[in-house]
Amino acid sequence: MSNKTSAVVKTNPRKAVMIGCGFVGSASVFALMQSGLFSEIVLIDADKDKAEGEAMDISHGIPFARPMKIYAGGYDDVADAAIIVVSAGAGQKPGETRLDLVNKNVAIFKSIIPEIAKRNFGGILLIVANPVDILTQVAQKLSGLPEERVIGSGTVLDSARLKYALGEHLEVDSRSVHAFIVGEHGDSEVVAWSSANVSGVELHKMCEMRGHYKHKENTEEIAANVKNSAYEIINRKHATYYGIAMSVRRICEVIMRDEKSILPVSHMMHGQYGIDGVVLSMPAIVGANGVESDIPIELNGEEALKLKESADALKSILDGLEL
Ligand SMILES: NC(=O)c1ccc[n+]([C@@H]2O[C@H](COP(=O)([O-])OP(=O)(O)OC[C@H]3O[C@@H](n4cnc5c(N)ncnc54)[C@H](O)[C@@H]3O)[C@@H](O)[C@H]2O)c1
């Protein structure tokens, strides 16, 4: 927890900062530019030319959106931001898992997060770089910010992929599908099938209404496709960025508009499902102050066990880190 709260800088509620302007950072800024949420977005990257080039390119869309300033900057620009998104870090190469990125990206975070902490930042820190759950916990530790203000995009993207897949399978609007992926944003993620529904109708009933009776095969196939979708995209185009960009936009919208929507963001567990002291994704009420309250959705025995295994996998990586 921070002991610097008295010196916190007043935030500008219309200002965002993106740290890391690669595929994910620039696609997210492009989505944010169109959202109308901000009047100022600052781009920071170790490669200053890259930040400047992206700021110039994205700014040229402003006449088709709303007036705002998008520019390359430095850490002195972060103090009064309402939200800082961190996408800086290496991405997965074909064959690499998200957890393979941990050492490279922890080293990068050690150069970024203390720069933010020094400036008495008073807003929300949103981590997107992978492995996102671990890096969110690293950012909580290195920043000293209150943990509810340091959150990760977690399984917001995975849950969107699941909703999309179920929407296609059932031929219904994916926005009417309510289903979460919980745990690690990665290979140990867990589909919370037992709480999945379509506008209140239990999933298996909806499947039968739409002519699908092979529940076990279908759910296994959908879960595997969702889990492997990043690998499949990376094999074809070397990176994933549009889905996460829309996820970043949605998380920012929920925070900036204090929507108190329920999103499966990465945040610290305090004993829920027997998990303590590990950041992972579970549905939570998110608003202007970050994570406001955990929503312990119903999990069956198998799902709860898998969630515990996911937490243990993350914990064993965290225990090996020197922070
Ligand atoms: N959370 C998710 O759902 C999700 C989805 C897709 C990708 N990602 C992750 O996002 C991260 C970025 O992916 P990408 O495809 O944009 O990679 P990228 O290589 O295109 O971009 C990374 C950027 O970070 C910059 N950078 C590196 N070190 C820096 C530092 N110390 N300070 C500032 N900038 C620095 C690089 O110059 C580069 O521009 C990866 O870790 C990737 O795995 C997360």
What does the model show?
This is L-lactate dehydrogenase. InterPro entries: L-lactate/malate_DH, L-lactate_DH, L-lactate_DH_AS, Lactate/malate_DH_C, Lactate/malate_DH_N, Lactate_DH/Glyco_Ohase_4_C, NAD(P)-bd_dom_sf. NAD(+) binds at residues 20-25, 45, 50, 75, 89-90, 105, 111, 128-130, 153. The active site is at residue 185. It catalyses: (S)-lactate + NAD(+) = pyruvate + NADH + H(+). With 323 residues, the protein is of the alpha/beta class. It folds into two domains: 13-150, NAD(P)-binding Rossmann-like Domain (Rossmann fold, 3-Layer(aba) Sandwich); 154-318, Lactate dehydrogenase/glycoside hydrolase, family 4, C-terminal (L-2-Hydroxyisocaproate Dehydrogenase, Chain A, domain 2), CATH 3.90.110.10. The chain is built from nine helices and 16 strands. It has helices at 23-35, 48-59, 102-117, 132-143, 156-170, 203-209, 215-237, 242-256, 301-319; strands at residues 12-19, 40-44, 69-72, 81-86, 124-127, 150-152, 177-178, 181-182, 190-191, 197-198, 201-202, 261-263, 266-270, 276-281, 284-287, 290-294. Strands 3-2-1-4-5-6 form a six-stranded parallel beta sheet, sandwiched between helices. β15 and β16 (290-294) form a beta hairpin. α1 (23-35) runs parallel beside α2 (48-59), α1 packs across α8 (242-256) and α5 (156-170) crosses α7 (215-237). The longest helix is centred in the C-terminal third of the chain and has 23 residues, at 215-237. It starts with 11 loop residues before the first strand and ends with a helix. Residues 1-5 have low confidence and may be disordered. The structure holds nicotinamide-adenine-dinucleotide. Residues 19-25, 45-47, 50, 87-92, 101, 105, 108, 111-112, 128-130, 132, 153, 157, 185, 239-241, 244 line the site of nicotinamide-adenine-dinucleotide (NAD).
